[in-house]
Amino acid sequence: MAHADDASLHEPQSFWTRYVWSQDHKVIAIQYACTAIVVGLVGVVLSNLMRLQLGFPGQFEFINAERYYQFVTMHGMIMVIYLLTALFLGGFGNYLIPLMVGARDMVFPYLNMLSYWVYLLSVLVLIASFFVPGGPTGAGWTLYPPQAILPGTPGNTWGIILMLVSLVIFIVATTMGGLNYVTTVLQARTEGMTLLRMPLTVWGIFVATILALLAFPALFVSGVMMLLDRTLGTSFFMPALVSMGQVTNYKGGSPLLFQHLFWFFGHPEVYIVALPAFGIVSDLISVHARKCIFGYRTMVWAIIAIGVLSVIVWAHHMFVAGMNPYFAFFFATTTLVIAVPTAIKVYNWLLTLWRGDIHLTVPMLFALAFVCTFVIGGLTGLFLGNVSVDIPLSGTYFVVAHFHMVMGVAPLLVVFGGIYHWFPKVTGRLLDDRLGKLHFWITFLGTYAIYFPMHYLGVLGMPRRYHNFDGYQFIPASAHSLNVFITVAALIVGAAQLLFLFNLAWSAWRGRLADANPWRAASLEWQTPTTPPRHGNWGPQLPVVYRWAYAYSVPGAPQDFIAQNAPPEAGSAEPEPYEAKGAPA
Amino acid sequence: MTSATVLSGGALERPDAAAGQAVATGLWMFMGVATVLFSLFLMAYVMRMDGAEGYPIAMPWQLWLSTGLLTAGSVMMQRASVAAQAMRWSRARTLLLAGGACALAFLGVQLWAWQVLHALHVVPAGNAAASFFYLLTALHGLHVAGGLVAWAVTARGLLRHATRSVWRMALCARYWHFLLAVWAVLFATLGWLTPEVVRLICGTG
Asked: Cα distance from B153 to chain A (closest Cα, Å)?
């Protein structure tokens, strides 16, 4: 049995050490989440501004072509990096890993605190680019050279510099956080918490963090080299060229090299976001269907397989850049192979639901919506993974629809589901159910109203990245009508997020009080002696784990779940489908 | 794993063995990240050198001196770690300080090499090899500077609680070996990766 000194003696006593310069993983998680949500709101506003231009071209004079591209760029970068990555790893990872593995905190709490403050610095540098001469960069979220740093591209002076500096700072923060998460999972699990007893949420975040540690260096390398091209005049990525009638001093650089480096980061980034979502959804489905997760070990192996495969598919983003046909064949094949472990996960979610005691709670609604959305987004990925189909579709709205379904909407549905699920643990109060359902239905149906028509527009050949579609003969009037419809849907979905924010704020202070385990969940985070958990999480004694996190509806058990830390006599037949090595009986 | 976890000062503090194990794992992870980082830079170097501009620059002799210093630092750190395990604290302190001094001197000599190249008009915005040389030596220098921060913490710990510093010194030694290994690969690549070898790697020969 694990013991600890009287934790209350060592708790931070002042407001500053408790809430600001806190080293407590729970406070840091909330700091990460709040910052990510605030910056995410900026991203949502930018997307609505873009949609206003596309739906009602020329009606809003302040959205000129230059600003449109700045909105596109900042929206993409904010949502992918500063919202989703930070929220899944810094927010959910920080809050859940120590609680789910039975640790008192991350193994390096000081580094953890630094990670948040460095992340905040990266956000501030990014936001500062809105206020510098020339505004933020409008190079597109991929920041491809040579155009990203040449005159003619919006924000090619300070905007691109601040963007690159911000990314480099963000990667430093992510690395500090990532080292902590991985080491905590490997070194600070409580007694009995074998790797194959960890909840799938932890598995998802753990593998995603390893991916982040391996993939973000590629963005760091490309960011630093482009920064030097812009500031010192090196030619890492810049070929000899004439810009605006002027011969530049660049020579011999390779824009393709940047693309390889960027996508070596960029594709794993999809799974850095998706794997935590997979893990969280598995847990939500199991808890709210009152059934053990189907095929736990295959779920774990699928997470690992997806992680491994995701680093050898990057060049499918570069089919239109041209490559050796054999390479294209290789990357198309590996891309399509990812469908196998992903399909295994989908089947297992469905089989977990099969004959389950399904409770259509708000978290469960979001989880089900995720499965549906990810499948649809994944299916269009099969189209784009094929070179011959990708090339004609690559420059169209089909791609916009695909990656928003799979990488925007789907993970955000999980973010919402996760917040509705764990909010009672964080605050001791439940989020309002009616507001939650209203938020869910508007968001779910609204996003489909946005992105389903985009597939059609894409197949029609409507090009993406255009500021204005006036005067293009091949685009029929019906496409413009559809654009108006999409814009209205986007504005409604954007406004619906205010419901969510109101629910968060109102419920945190006035919401219905929750008991310690309102969802009757078996995993360890719901078994803390106090809710919300106090500093140190577990009181004087660390928990001992006797089983996996999915002991639901066990025949003969007094309740329909058996907590991971309930001694064996509390349950009946051991529900684990395998022997956990080194675990207490 | 967690048999005697204690809380202190708002931070997680563990007994020496457990803390050492956690930091050792973290260090392995960090070295993995740094390896990926430098590997990507080197791959970029190889791709960039596969072209008309692809000719290496001559390495100044100062780099041999800096290599010798880093090698000496690595050896001294290892011996300091062995001395600490044998609880020969005076010897451990001396060797630890010498190992850090070698790393500091390494940085100084690297700057000297920069100065020499600059005097020869080899500038960062020159050819690709020169750009990579300045970039990679600067990043490696930062890597060494980061190690010196850890070294300073270890040296302070050794003065205050010698017995608790044994694992810290072992990790310092490991980090110094890693610094040397990274530098050796960078030095060899920047100095001796000929255009012929590059074309062989890229399949364009």
From this structure: 15
In Å, how far from its chain's centre is CA A497? 17
Burial grade of A178 (CB within 10 A; 0-12, 13-18, 19 or more): buried
Q: Classify burial at A285, counting beta carbons within 10 Å of its beta carbon; exposed 0-12, middle 13-18, buried 19 or more.
A: buried
The per-residue pLDDT for range A302-357, each reduced to its tens digit, is 999 999 999 998 888 888 888 888 988 999 999 899 999 999 999 999 999 999 99
3-class DSSP state for residue A131? helix
The single residue listed with the structure tokens 């392995």 is: B28
Question: What is chain A's length?
Answer: 585
- Kindly list the residues from chain B whose CB atom is less than 8 angstroms away from the CB atom of residue A213: 29, 32-33, 36
Q: Could you tell me which residues are beta bridge partners of residue A463?
A: A396
Q: Looking at chain B from residue 59 to 98, which residues have their Cβ under 8 Å from any Cβ of chain A?
A: none
The reported pTM is 0.94
- Dihedral of alpha carbons A518, A524, A530, A531, sign: negative
pLDDT band at B4 (very low <50, low <70, confident <90, very high): very low
Nearest CA to A143 out of A258, A257, A273, A229 is that of A258
Using the Cβ of B22 and the Cβ atoms of chain A, whether some distance falls under 8 Å is answered with yes
